[in-house]
Every structure is written in C-alpha cells, then in structure tokens.
Amino acid sequence: MEIFTQIEIRGTEAAVDELVAVVHILKDFGPELMERESEVASRLPRHFAEKFSKEMSEADKVAWLHRWRAASSGEKARLEEERGWELGQWLYWFSPKNEYWRVVDVVKSADPLSCSILLECDDEQFPREALEWLAACVGGELIDIRPA
Question: What are the C-alpha distances in Å from 53 to residues 13, 49, 83, 89?
C-alpha cells in the first residue's frame, strides 16, 4: 500500500464526534480487532452497535448467497441493503486482513462539522461501502475523497 487518500465526512458536531470516537475505538484494538469482536461491540456506542444485522446461520448465509447470485444487479443492491452489515463483516474492513486500505488516522477538522479519515490504499479506486455506512450510521455523509 503506497497511496494516501483523505476522506472528508460532514455532519452535525455530535455525528462527527461519534465517528471520530468509533474510528479511535477500532484503531485501539489494532491487529486483534476481529478476534475481539464482542469486546469491540461492548465499547461501541449502544445505538451504533444496534444497527448491525444479527449474524446469519450457515444455512441462511448459503440461501442468501444463492438468491444474491441469481439476482439482477439492481436486485443485488436491494438484497445487500436489506441484509445490512454483520459486525464481523464490517470489522473486517478496519482490520489488517483488509488488503485494500487501512486507516492511518482520523482527525476533526477546524470546522466542527467535518472530519477527515486518512487511508493508506493499494489503489486510487477502493471499496468504501464500510466507510459510507459508518458515516450514515452516525448521521454524517462522506462528501469528498482526494489524494492526501
């Protein structure tokens, strides 16, 4: 990974504070993030942690994947949105197992209604759905992605 990207997120001051706090919690766990999932969940703000989907059984995962593979692209997006994120799936993106990007830092901007997340990426184009979901869950919006 050699490309640094800055993501700007805007929202209310409370939303920005919460986003910064969540990212710091995730960074605190470092390489053990996924192995300590229940401890991570207990440190996240309750209303944020409640937004995760319940973990599916293996049979339900297989059935969902079968439906998803047979669906049109528009239908796939709807199925993904309905399913939501399981905590473990979402944590993956903030763990060292994610080979696309890693969070270097998160800082509040001089403007109290925005913050920036600095990522180290392997490409200028990268999956960002977990970051968009984080912003939306705290009441913010990802508004800009640019080279750092």
Answer: 27, 9, 7, 10
- The first and second tokens of residue 120, run together, are 């180290």
DSSP-H helix ranges across 12-146: 13-29, 37-43, 46-49, 58-70, 73-83, 87-92, 129-137
Q: What are phi and psi of 104, to 5 degrees?
A: -90, -45
Query: Is the pTM value of this prediction over 0.90?
Result: no
pLDDT along the chain (148 residues), means of 10: 82 92 92 92 92 91 92 90 91 91 90 90 84 91 86
